[in-house]
Amino acid sequence: MKTDVFIIGGGPGGAMSAMFLLREGIKPIILEQEEFPRFHIGESMTGEAGQVLRRLGLEDKMQAANYPVKHGVKVYGAEGVNSWFIPVSARSPEWKLSPGTTWQVRRSDFDGMILQESEVRGATAIRGKAVKALLGGDGAVRGVTMRHSDGRLEDIESEVVLDCSGLATFLANQRVTGPKYVGSYDKQIAFFTHVTGALRDSGSSGEEAKDNTLIFYRKKFHWAWFIPIDDQVVSLGLVVPTAVFQESGQTTEEFFHSYLPEINPGLKRRSLDIKLIEKVHVIPNYSYQVRRFCGKGFICIGDAHRFIDPIFSFGLSATMREAEFAVPHVLAYLGGKGRALPNPFAEHMVFCEKGADNLEDMVDLFWEQPFAFSGLVHRFYREEMIDAFAGRVYETEHQPSRAILAFRKMLARTREYENEDAYSIPIGSRFHPERAAIWEPNSPLPTTEDWMSSAPTF
Hints:
The chain is α+β, with helices and mostly antiparallel strands.
């Protein structure tokens, strides 16, 4: 089988990539190994993620699905009383700020809906697992060997492979990319579930809107999220250092129930009468970064090359936006541009990495200096922070802003982008160079299971 563009992964990154390609007359093939619906975390969208959906003509479907409307993010301090709020916003072509809204989504429904929509619009979705990258004599990615559900292997040849495999990081684990590094948030663990009976705010808009994202801070690296995903159900999760859980000697569910009231008095008040309707899921809250995540014949999108920290819900937004950003470069490559270059997608790669660096600097300062961070949010850089929380973190959106540059100064950090090796070295506040590389160029080929087993045990 042959195709112009082969997409690994049918989640938001893959489905969005397909729909943007279809608008340009390219009919891709999407490979997805899981059956939908399936449980997935990452349910809160930034303002710009909502704008991606609108540009794809999906607003009516979002409204028809009755997804909760998000007006902003409220972050509570350790006592559960003081808080600060960042509204969802939009920017006009003249760069004027205006109020906006986005959505919270139940991922099992949302992911299935957009994958199905990509098929309706002309994409081909097939079930199976990518097992090997096909390489040409010049080292370019020429497609993928996949395994069908019946065990049969098939080579899919393509001009471009878009790796939207998320945490599986297929091309990185195939050593097609540069080295994969553990990042700066690798010592935490997240517990999460869906509940009914949680107490929400009662407003219809603004700071008190009932479907806003709430974040509850306890102390450094201890926090919880509260995300409404329909009229009755809230996604509830807590994140703590892995050592805290290990020392408790409890099961995951015991720990969740015992520690949830301890995170924050405000969250305790809101969760007195909750009932779990989903098991307690657990995942090490690791982060990672893939160097040289674009090259001849391939682009890694979203979590397939970088995961920082989920506290401000940037992951879904970054994936959706990178899917849109990649399409013009894919079209140029299909038209013959850059075929002789070592990395035809170098410009796109650095562009995406700069945006992710801006997010990382913001998250790092929140953890390292939370009181200074809240002051900067309210007093000095209000508009710049509204932009950042909306997901407007890229060069074309006046970034790095004065706020991001101030964060870097306070973190005693610089960012270098002289070449594609210099820019992507992880430098987060808890990055550990002595044990950073998950694999190096001469090490044995790792598997997804190898990567997962490198995360903290529990």
